[in-house]
Amino acid sequence: MSRLENHNKKVARKRLLTTFILIGIVIIFFFNSGIALLIDGSVAISRFLGGNKTDDAAQSAPEFGVVEIDEIPTATNSAAIIVSGRAHNMDIVYAYVNGDKRDEIEVDKDGTFTTEIDSLTPGENEVYVAGTTSNKKEKKETSSYTVTYANDKPTVEISEPFDGLRTPRNEIKVSGTVKSGSGTVVRINGSPAVVGQGGVFSSFVKLNEGENTITVTVSDNAGNTDEKTLKVIYEK
Predict the structure, then answer these.
(1) What is the pLDDT of residues 111-145, one digit of tens each?
(2) Under DSSP, is residue 155 helix (H, G, I), strand (E, B) or coil?
(3) 186: Cβ–Cβ under 8 A, 6 or more apart, which residues?
(4) Residues 3, 23: Cα–Cα separation, whole Å
(5) 48: part of which helix (H) or strand (E)?
(6) Are 180 and 152 in contact (CB under 8 A)?
(7) 152-155: which pairs have CB atoms within 8 A and are 24 or more residues apart?
(8) Would the pLDDT of 108 be above 80?
(9) Could you give the 3-state DSSP secondary structure of residue 173?
(10) What's the CA angle centered on 218, arms 212 and 223, to 5 degrees?
(11) In Å, how far are 6, 159, 160 from 163, measured between CA atoms?
(12) Radius of gyration (Cα) for the chain, nearest Å?
């Protein structure tokens, strides 16, 4: 083999080795940086394309109105209640009681509204509001709320002890009868007493030496109250 052939083979081996080294460097770079670049590029393209579609959909989608009522009482001793709330993309709000339209309210610039609904009927009343756009093309209603108007004052009668009783005992039984609607609470000197069937209640009260004031108060969930007071004298 001539010197020229040996030289050509050495050059070919060097070129082959250089080629393998370059391929290895490319592979290492690809795994270290190339995949990350491909992923970042794909995410950016996806966001760009998806963002355009989302913006187009948002611009073409109709803006629906929303109307909501703030918390209102479940029971009241007044024939009128205040109803307030918020209305989005609504211009006028109508208040309904038991299916009858009672009031028409213009929504304020900040999207809120307030009105007083009067002439509630004794017992349960179904209250809700409905909002409409100025062109009457859209209408939204809130859920219906039950408001109990209790206009009858509860009454309490004490059967024992009688007013002015003198006793040698340091504890006495207080009992009586209450007449009222739902949600009745009886308190004797501030402490709750159990109300049984027929509105009968009873509880024991500790006495201090000398004159003691016993106060029985009854209230319902509408805020109506009645009260009776008597004196009991504890003598050892």
Answers:
(1) 899 999 988 999 999 999 998 877 766 788 899 99
(2) strand
(3) 156, 178, 192, 193, 195, 201, 216, 217, 218
(4) 30
(5) helix 35-60
(6) yes
(7) 152/122, 152/180, 152/181, 152/224, 153/180, 153/224, 153/225, 153/226, 154/178, 154/179, 154/180, 154/181, 154/184, 154/218, 154/219, 154/220, 154/224, 154/225, 154/226, 155/179, 155/180, 155/218, 155/226
(8) yes
(9) strand
(10) 135
(11) 134, 10, 9
(12) 41
pTM: 0.59
Q: Are 176 and 146 in contact (CB under 8 A)?
A: no
Name residue 63's amino acid.
E
Nearest to 191 by CA among 183, 203, 175, 209: 203
Euclidean distance between CA atoms 66 and 131, whole angstroms: 8
Residue matched to tokens 């009241």: 76
